[in-house]
Amino acid sequence: MRPHVSAETMARYRQGDLNQRRTSHIGTHLAGCERCSALNEDLGGVTTLLAGVHPPPMPEDLTARITSAIAAESARRTASPAAGKAPVAGRPPAARQHRSPRRSRLPRIAPKVALGGLAAAAAVVLVGGGIYKVVTQTGSTATSAASGVPSAAEPATRSPANGPMASALPVSGPALQYQRSGRRDSITPITTSANLTPATLGSQVTAEVKKYGAGFAKTGPNAQQSGRHGSASPAAVPREQTPAFADIPLASLRGCVNRIAAGSLVLLVDVAHYRGAPATIIVTEAAKTGPMQIWVVGTGCSASSSDVLQHATATTP
Amino acid sequence: MAGDPDAFGTLFLRHRDRLWAVAVRTLADPEEAADALQEAMISAFRRAGSFRGDSAVTTWLHRIVINACLDRLRRKAARPVAGGADERTLDNLATAHAMPDPSSDSDTSMDVRSALRTLPPDQQAALVLVDMLGYPVAITAEILGVSEGTVKSRCARGRARLLPRLAHLRRPAEQHPAGTRRRAPGNRSASGDVLPAREGGENPS
Fold it and tell me: Where are the alpha helices (DSSP H) in chain A?
């Protein structure tokens, strides 16, 4: 009997990283050696364990943070094309000593500097910037820069309108089933041409919920059951012709709403825009007495992925 | 794309889930992963002018992100952090836990990630791309800028080193039915993963 195979050799065997002669030797050896077969099996288990790691989701504010940082970088570049030494927010330009900042046209922003200096940078270079407050679910209050950066291409099918709620009537889609505290409920999604921004998120969504939200519309039956559209009477889209609603496959939208709601009552689903990019606004209410939860999700939202771009709370109207 | 923040922003939006998946798997601390991703995107934006060829833009972005992460791992290895990280990790876990997201950390995930931390950065990067994200060896080689043989041997060495550290976690009957244990690399479904299905398959370019 040949000597047993080491873990590294076995791993290389599995990876197809050995020559033909050794591969065939190990293959023969494996057929008659329980110990090495177990090792082979165990190495497969390592890959399985690695593949099963599910790290935390992307922080809600990271997309906005990075988009703002890119805009700030672009504006800095435009404002001072020759400035290789302009400090950001009063801090030295480069914290990375091993890579010369002079190699690139502009100084690297050390991440912490970029984060700390973001509000200042955005305020200097961007129009329409402001400060907004995001009340997180844990109850703490974070203040962040609202840059109003137009960040994404605008699809022809849903062009966002800036400012407060667009005057055009929303279009409603087929009812979406979702689980609410273990029971089945439904919400009728709408799509509006609203382009929400961090600064106006709370007020705009509150206005929308009042106007179109489940249980808030002034007329119609079953006001507490599901979303309706009150006197505004948006044009209904026939069910059977809409496997997708406003460019989003219904299955994804349903999965997304269920995932985000996580058993809560859903007050509003609006397929709209956020900071110029396609986004869906989902408003939920965990408890009658608590604030409503505003979730802004990207187009990647489905049953298996949240893709939360922003989360805020507001007082239920 | 060079110098156009809108176009670059769109590019970032299209790839952010994948890039986040790479960063957060390579760096243990989500906050640090966020910083690395931001740093990488600023760096990519500055260098966008020198980028050539549209087909490999994903590979290019991956390379910049993973290099930003590896820089951090190497710096950390050279100069251990003096506290703070644990607290931050706990804060982040708490936040993640508060979200309606079933993919938040489990004990097993934590153990696997801390075992991964013990490997040399090069092996970590190879295993993150090949085993955790299911990228083919050829694509991984392109991202890392090394030969396929190098990727294979880094993966093999890394797995062999992880084996004793993960022995206590192998309970295949619980979560992984026998049929799924030996999947072919790059042939894994992205169930529960943050990789968006719309990207189409496992091939990142």
Answer: 7-15, 20-32, 34-51, 62-79, 111-125, 201-212, 250-261
Other Cβ atoms less than 10 A from the Cβ of B180: the count is: 14
**C-alpha distance from residue A53 to each of A140, B31, B87, B109 (Å):** 29, 18, 21, 5
Judging contacts by C-beta atoms under 8 Å, the chain A residues touching residue B26 are none
Question: What's the rounded mean pLDDT across residues A129-145?
Answer: 31
Q: Alpha-carbon distance A293 to B40, whole Å?
A: 32
Q: Which two tokens stand for residue B80?
A: 């251990």
Structure tokens at A170: 């929303």
Reported pTM: 0.47
Sign of CA dihedral B48, B54, B56, B61: positive
Find the mean pLDDT for residues B143-162: 95
Rounded CA separation A69/B4 (Å):
13
Can you tell me which residue has the tokens 């960063």?
Answer: B23
Task: Give the distance from residue B125's alpha carbon to the nearest chain A alpha carbon, in angstroms.
Answer: 12
Check CB contact under 8 Å for A308 and B42. no
pLDDT tens profile A171-210 = 777 888 888 877 888 888 888 888 888 888 888 888 888 8
Check residue A119 and give its pLDDT.
34
Q: What's the token pair of residue A218?
A: 């002034």
Bigger pLDDT: A123 vs B25: B25
**Residues on chain B touching A46 (C-beta within 8 angstroms):** 131, 159, 162-163, 166
Burial A228-266 (b: 16+ CB within 10 A, else e): bbbeeebeeeeeeeeeebbebebebbbbbbbbbbbebbb
Of B36, B160, B172, the CB nearest to A45: B172
Q: Is the pLDDT of residue A239 over 70?
A: no
Is the model's pLDDT at B187 over the cut of 90? Answer: no
For residues A145 and A95, the answer to whether their CB atoms sit within 8 Å is no
ipTM (interface predicted TM)? 0.70
Tell me how crowded residue A52 is: count the other CB atoms within 10 A of its CB: 16
